[in-house]
Amino acid sequence: MIEGKGTLREQMMRCYMLGYIMQRHNDRMIVEKYHDYDTYKALKKEKTVEILHRAGIPRSISKAIVMIVPSMEIPISVFICSWLFMSYSFRWLIHKKVTYHNKKFTLKINLQEKRLVDLLGSAGYGPQNVLAIDIPQTVMNYKSFQVVSLFSGITYGQLWNSFVYALRTCFFEIIKYHKDDLLFRAYSSFPYYICFYFVENLDNSNELVFFNHYERWSYLFGNSHLKRIYVQHGIMPKDHIKRINCDVAYYINQTQREILEYTIFSNKPEARFRKLFEYSGDEKLKNNGMKNVLVICVALFWDSHMSILKRLYDKHVNIYLKPHPGDNIDIFNKLKEEYPKVVVLGKFDYPKVDYVISYNSTLADEYEMHDIPVYRYKDKDFDLKVEGIVAESK
User: Fold this and answer.
1) Sequence-distant (≥ 6) Cβ neighbours of residue 93 within 8 angstroms
2) How far apart, in whole angstroms, are the C-alpha atoms of residue 28 and residue 159?
3) Burial annotation 146-172 (CB, 10 A radius, 16+ → b, else e)
4) Domain 282-393 bears CATH identifier 2.60.410.10
5) Would you call 193 helix, strand, or coil by DSSP?
6) If 49 and its partner were Cys, which of 62, 93, 203, 287 is the partner (CB 3.0–4.6 Å)?
7) What CA–CA distance (Å, rounded) separates 317 from 337?
8) Distance of CA 247 to CAs 180, 207, 239, 268, Å?
9) What is this structure's pTM?
10) What phi and psi, each to the nearest 5 degrees, are found at residue 357?
11) Dist CA 45 CA 27 (whole Å)
């Protein structure tokens, strides 16, 4: 797949591991900038306990789980990979093998269908002309796309190789990085390697459309032999390394184009710009004469969100919480027990508000491009700006 970069097995495992390392690097930067933890591992433990506790598991039991499960991760991973191999073997047997020509492919992984449709639409594509590759164990159900199975485009020998490589990855990743990380879920490398083979088997008449930029899927698509079309999903900082190639890139704005061309892409792709979101959900705004303040949320910045909620509640402003599409919205709905005046928006509501408060998010940038004032937690004068909202609302 990548000329001069070793055997196909070495390329597959390198792409997966580089994706893991870059994901961890990104998370560790967040820890260092925004959280008071000694290590990334400490943050991961605490956040895992919080997630389990919010799911109804007592905190003492949650802590015990986080203490015990990592020590058993290798046997757990071997068991899961072995079970998946038996399941995948049956699915391989029942799927008709297909050869694809002149198709565009994207991944059916962690994006909700509407979000995927919106991203494709921002670049001028639609479900009618893009096939979604079904990655095993994903829970998303796409109804408007033609979904294709990985098992329709690989050999049984490639399935077996993927199983063996996944076992090797589990041992390597856990043994090498267990001192400063935990809960690797390295068995996810199994379907990743199958997908790698699927893409490798496609002929040059096909194209790939992808949105990932700093994890394993970007390495897979960004180093493919096919034509690669990148649609920017989230904003990027300036401290990532060049690692993928691309033929056409749809950026959020000119600033992000310069950052991505400097940091991510080894080449200089044909540059285009995707459309911004359109306002929606305005019917949920309160027409009571008070200023509307949107707080863009993600679970990782929970403490910051709670702090701003306490500061602005009952300050003559309307507060709207906008959960990240990847977060459980029930967590935010529970806040209404303590803050009944707060409005929790749907994951695809983008109302026209007066102010936006956010971490360093893509949506915040897009609101700013719509000429809405955006105040970020990292701003040096953030507290002064928040006080300005309160003063204006009196």
Assistant:
1) none
2) 34
3) eebbbbbbbeeebbebbbebbbebbee
4) no
5) helix
6) 62
7) 18
8) 37, 10, 22, 8
9) 0.81
10) -115, 130
11) 13
Domain boundaries, the chain: 8-235, 282-393
Local structure of residue 154 (DSSP, 8 states)? -
Are 133 and 154 within 8 A, CB to CB? no
DSSP conformation class of 369? H
At 8, list the tokens: 């196909």
Strand 270-273 versus strand 291-296 pairing type? unpaired
Helix (H, G, I), strand (E, B) or coil at 170: helix
Per-residue pLDDT of the chain (394 residues; tens, 9 = 90+): 444 467 888 889 988 988 888 777 766 666 665 556 666 777 778 878 887 887 788 989 988 888 888 888 889 899 999 999 999 999 999 999 999 999 999 988 777 888 889 999 999 999 999 999 999 877 778 889 999 999 999 999 999 999 999 999 999 988 888 777 777 778 899 999 999 999 999 999 999 999 877 678 888 998 899 999 999 988 877 766 667 889 999 999 998 999 888 888 888 999 999 998 889 999 999 989 899 999 999 887 888 999 999 999 989 999 999 998 778 888 888 888 899 999 999 878 999 999 999 998 889 999 999 999 999 998 989 999 999 998 887 6
Pick from 119, 347, 112, 105: nearest CA to 211? 119
Quickly list H helices, the chain.
Answer: 8-34, 40-54, 59-68, 73-94, 113-122, 156-177, 189-201, 216-222, 254-263, 302-312, 329-333, 362-369, 382-393
DSSP per position, 10-58: HHHHHHHHHHHHHHHHHHHHHHHHH---SSHHHHHHHHHHHHHHHTT--
* Angle at alpha carbon of residue 30, lines to 262 and 36, rounded to 5°: 150
